[in-house]
Amino acid sequence: MHLNNFVKTQPVEHLVDLSNDEIFRVDDSTALLTDEDLGRYAQLVREADRRELEAFIDHKVFKVEPISSLSSNANLVDCVRIRKWAIKGQKVKSRMCARGCFDRQKYFIDRHSSTATRLSQRLVASLGLCTGIIYSDTGDNLDIDTESLDISTAFLQGLDYQQLKDQARVLGYEYRQPRDVHVLPPENVWFHFRSMRKAPNSFKIPDQLRHKYALKCLRAMYGFADAPLMFQLALIAFLKDTTGAKSSVFDDNFLFWYQPVHGIPQLVLVMTVHVDDLQITGSAKLRQWIHGLLEKRFGTLKRQRLPYTHAGIQLERISPDCIRLHQDQFTSKLATHKLDKDRISQPDSDCTSAETTIFRSLTCSAAWACQTRLEEIFNVVSLQTKLKHPKIQDLIAINTVTKRLAKNQNKFGIYLRRMHPPIRLVSVSEASAPNKVSNFATEGIIIGLAEDRLRQPSVDKNDYLEPTLVKDI
Prior knowledge:
Elements: E1 2-4, E2 13-17, E3 22-25, H1 35-40, H2 42-58, E4 62-66, E5 76-87, E6 91-98, H3 118-127, E7 144-151, H4 161-171, E8 182-184, H5 189-195, E9 213-217, H6 227-241, E10 246-247, E11 254-261, E12 264-274, E13 277-283, H7 284-298, E14 301-305, E15 308-310, E16 313-319, E17 322-326, H8 328-331, H9 341-344, H10 353-369, H11 377-384, H12 392-407, E18 414-417, E19 423-431, E20 443-451, H13 467-472
Parallel strand pairs: 5-8
Antiparallel strand pairs: 1-2, 2-3, 4-9, 5-6, 7-13, 7-14, 8-9, 10-11, 11-12, 12-13, 15-16, 16-17, 17-18, 19-20
Helix pairs in contact: 10-11, 10-12
């Protein structure tokens, strides 16, 4: 079924899947602009470039300096423009990125930026369905919900390099040397700077002099290896120092808030941090509170209520008391590799170089899908042992797994259901027997939360064995 967007001046084609009521836009929203597009949609491109540069000015990323003032061994990096369609033929997304591969300090800076673990991301969703764990002053279980927040232009809002120098010890950052890097921007940058009222006068360089100036980075920008870490340090420091968040010993990116209620500390809000994507669970009042503080510090946030996709996992509320975690959009696009009859008839033959690459690709894709498709973990893990030297039978096996993952008529996934206290941890362990493929057992363990419905048994001395009998046994 096709729909046309009759509101826009240019029609945008959509497809509607009547089986599940999903609407898809036909154009590729991530497509790069071609050379022909750059000429045909020049006005859209200029508008996108300007919007991007305004963010750099707003966040005070640069300082203009004459190239003649730089030393002969200055750390000078050029930039490139990456332009993609936000909406085909209607809106362009532009990004100016430094070519960080030429950054002379890239090996001397701490650039590791951790993200929330998968367990933490599941906990944020599941704790909202555990009655009595997260407090709400309304007393209504349905007031506690989960939502996603996305910070725009995040990498431009990290700590500036002077703040990093001053706070390195407190933040646990290994400050090895002063960060000193300049960039040579694309030629049209100076044109846009001159037309911006908010741009300082030092940025309004005439075209005939633009080759004599560079931009000194006061903070990290897109393309530099330390940009994610600088933002993470700024975000975590803000959440802890300004909002009173505490981080988990298990995961630094799992944050929680306690507030006193009648003199007793109560858990009121939990959050995971995945670079610039945040997931929070709490009452409507507390969610609005943290949203307001974040917007005041980092600007307008993209805020989503269920259903949404977070860190590759789709979350949707099946009912007021159940949330489903799945990857249907990802698995529906998985495709098998077509083998001819001659290859199928030779299951013990080694895969060719091309077939080995295909096998590895399919196996790794299936492993990613197993985050929510637990029923296929055993098969995928077994096939992962063949990544180095797969045979045709292994390629056939991963094709079969891929078909099951893509079909998913039974709506498999992880279902989080509401639980009432008391709640206990449940551990299920199992191991397979050796087989013709391997002499080693495949072991697995599942750890989950469950309601504790076991009543305290009555104590009867007749239920216990006599000590002498135990000794005999």
